[in-house]
Write a structure and sequence with these properties.
Blueprint lengths: L1 E3 L2 E4 L3 H12 L4 E5 L13 E3 L3 H11 L3 H8 E7 L9 E6 L1 H13 L4 E5 L2 E7 L2 E7 L4 E3 L2 E4 L8 E4 L2 E4 L11 H6 L5 E13 L9 E3 L22 E5 L2 H9 L22 H7 L7 E6 L6 E8 L4 H8 L10 E3 L2 E8 L16 E3 L9 H18 L4 H6 L11 H12 L23 H12 L4 H23 L1 E2 L1 H10 L9 E2 H5 L6 H7 L1 H8 L5 H13 L1 H18 L17 H10 L4 H5 L6 H12 L1
Parallel strand pairs: 1-10, 2-3, 2-11, 3-7, 11-21
Antiparallel strand pairs: 4-6, 5-6, 8-9, 9-10, 12-13, 12-20, 14-18, 14-19, 14-20, 15-16, 16-17, 17-18, 22-23
């Protein structure tokens, strides 16, 4: 049987869901192929979305017209805005979700997108004709033909599960691995390698002594991932913290000989920033304790996630160690922690559109590109889905204006992520941090729509309702900022209140914006002191907190934003200098040997991308500039 589409997406995880949704919303006839329709967007590890830098990515997905933010808000059982004690450049939303409801909310979303089919099957072979991907063949012998193929297979490609010395083929616990797809891709010249990740034990809530834990409540404020959705509808639940101790460490050290990480059983590299508990003991031998976070998996389940105790130790070692923690002395578990090894593909063989440089029409997103994390996967998936649809000829009116969706490093964390992958490659699972972005003050979680919604609307992804939502917000912010910059306040009107708030009284009159710029003051405090300001804030009644916060950040950090914008604009000059196809790097003896090798391997699009390649020095860039001048 042959089925024909514009875009085929292989894998129904976070990357696959966003890719399929984006391609279909761009007007492409799309098919999402997944092994199990009942595990769409499965949260394989922690049922949480967001966190440092990851929350910004979810806000960007929402601003572009994706769904992760909306689904997260609808299924959140705890929400927190991290880093609020620091500047807004690093504020990061995070939500704990109901795992089961998250899956079914995504199913509901996908089921209502026109032009999107879901096919429950397993991709077995990539079909390539004359250097171009034309479809896939499944294990049931069905041939799915398309103009673009997106691979978002997660950890399933030759997946191998480890618990102690036991090894079982699998893509996730109790789910089969995909054995042949990698080989059908690499035979066309695409390089593959192996990586590893892991997940903690799941424990029974009824066996926990919560009196020996510390409660970690969530927030009840206005923040959300998507302000277009309804406020969080589910009951909000706490999390709890406890700690390991020397007795726990003694048990774990005694089991290291049977740990796949240390007995030679696992050769691949795991995520540096989410280490297993045994790796923590080896890396930090002087630490007497490590924090653990007990997090609920849903509203109506006793299953709890033990964040911080990722492990692939033998089951009896995991259980024995846990029972030396006072709060878990009687613990019962649903399943042990395990490690998984899987195939990924060298991301330096991709363009910024996430299309392969080797096979035309083949796009890749998520863990198959060497990343870790739901959010990183979803952001890549959205970009790959849009570009796959454009490659397939969807939305021709917008395709003429822009042949690809490409996000710059000063436009989005998603842009930083993709540029890092295709320029630098990976030798360990890539995880996004705010420190990876050189323009953090421009890439705040509060201004994702200001950066991206207009762009997305013009390529046809963000729909008119989202665009109108942004225009209304933009107008309200501008009105509030204008009021603050043009309204004066006299010392006699406010000095006594300023002193009460611990800030210097006025000697002369000043603009309201000058008061907001003070670190000790914020918009809400001043609104209580200045009735006219309060009236202005309340005018957009349904979104006043969101708009007031955005206006306050705009005023407070105006100087920093303008300075960083100037730096970004200087770098854009190098971004505009195209060098792809203009040099035979192997013959350029004016640059270093390392630079020649790296430039030949990656073949960067622009001079700016070349400057970010490890091993390419500023002097090498200067040589290229001189040669371009000739």
């Amino acid at each position: 049987m042959i089925l024909k589409y514009d875009v085929i997406v292989i894998g129904g995880g976070h990357a696959g869901c966003e890719a399929a949704a984006a391609a279909a919303n761009m007007g492409a006839k799309t098919c999402l192929v997944t092994i199990d329709m009942n595990k769409i967007a499965q949260m394989s590890c922690n049922p949480a979305v967001g966190g440092i830098a990851k929350g910004q990515i979810v806000r960007e997905i929402d601003a572009l017209g994706g769904y992760m933010g909306l689904v997260t808000d609808a299924t959140a059982i705890q929400f927190r805005m991290l880093n609020q004690g620091k500047g807004p450049a690093v504020w990061s939303p995070r939500a704990q979700c109901d795992r089961g409801r998250f899956i079914w909310k995504w199913r509901e979303v996908l089921d209502h997108i026109n032009g999107l089919d879901i096919w429950q099957d397993q991709a077995d072979e990539l079909l390539v004709e004359q250097g171009e991907a034309v479809g896939v063949r499944t294990v049931w012998g069905v041939e799915l033909r398309a103009k673009s193929v997106v691979i978002t297979a997660g950890t399933f490609l030759n997946g191998l599960l480890h618990v102690g010395r036991k090894m079982i083929p699998g893509g996730r616990c109790a789910e089969p691995a995909v054995p042949n797809l990698t080989e059908s891709i690499t035979r066309h010249g695409i390089r593959a390698a192996r990586m590893k990740t892991g997940t903690p034990v799941r424990i029974d809530k009824r066996s926990i002594h919560f009196e020996d834990t510390e409660v970690q409540p969530g927030e009840t404020g206005f923040h959300q991932f998507s302000y277009m959705g309804e406020p969080r509808p589910l009951p909000q639940l706490p999390c709890w913290t406890c700690y390991t101790n020397e007795e726990v460490h003694k048990v774990l050290r005694g089991g290291l000989a049977d740990s796949p990480l240390y007995n030679g059983q696992i050769q691949s590299i795991g995520p540096r920033y989410c280490p297993s508990i045994e790796t923590k003991l080896v890396t930090f031998p002087d630490r007497s304790q490590h924090p653990l976070f007990i997090e609920p998996e849903g509203v109506n389940t006793n299953e709890m996630y033990l964040n911080g105790f990722s492990s692939s130790m033998p089951i009896e070692v995991q259980l024995n160690a846990l029972r030396h923690i006072p709060a878990l002395r009687d613990v019962r578990i649903y399943r042990p922690g395990y490690a998984i090894e899987y195939d990924f593909f060298d991301p330096t063989q991709l363009n910024h559109s996430l299309e392969s440089k080797v096979v035309r029409g083949l796009f890749m997103a998520g863990q198959v590109n060497g990343t870790t994390g739901y959010e990183e996967a979803a952001g890549q998936g959205l970009v790959a889905g849009v570009n796959a649809a454009l490659h397939a000829g969807a939305n021709p009116s917008t395709a003429q204006a822009q042949s690809q969706l490409r996000l710059g490093r000063d436009e989005a964390y998603i842009g930083v992520l993709i540029d890092d992958l295709v320029t630098k490659g990976v030798d360990e699972p890539y995880r996004m941090f705010t420190s990876r972005a050189e323009y953090r003050i421009l890439l705040r979680q509060d201004d994702a729509d200001a950066r991206l919604t207009e762009k997305s609307f013009h390529i046809g992804l963000a729909k008119s309702d989202r665009h109108e939502w942004w225009l209304q917000k933009k107008q309200a912010i501008e009105k509030l900022v204008s009021f603050c910059e043009n309204t004066s306040v006299k010392p006699s009107e406010i000095n006594s209140q300023l002193e009460a708030l611990g800030t210097t009284p006025l000697r002369f009159g000043c603009k309201v914006s000058e008061l907001i710029a003070r670190p000790q003051l914020n918009m809400q405090q001043l609104a209580e002191l200045l009735p006219e300001l309060k009236t202005t804030i309340l005018s957009p009644e349904n979104r006043r907190e969101e708009i007031a916060e955005a206006a306050e950040i705009s005023i407070k950090y105006k100087g920093y934003v303008e300075r960083e914008r100037m730096v970004a604009e200087k770098m854009h000059r190098l971004e505009n200098i195209q060098i792809k196809g203009r040099f035979n790097y192997s013959e350029l003896h004016e640059i270093s040997t390392e630079a020649r090798q790296k430039l030949e391997k990656i073949d960067p699009e622009t001079l700016a991308q070349a400057s970010r390649i490890p091993g390419v020095s500023p002097s090498d860039i200067n040589v290229l500039l001189v040669l371009l001048g000739r």
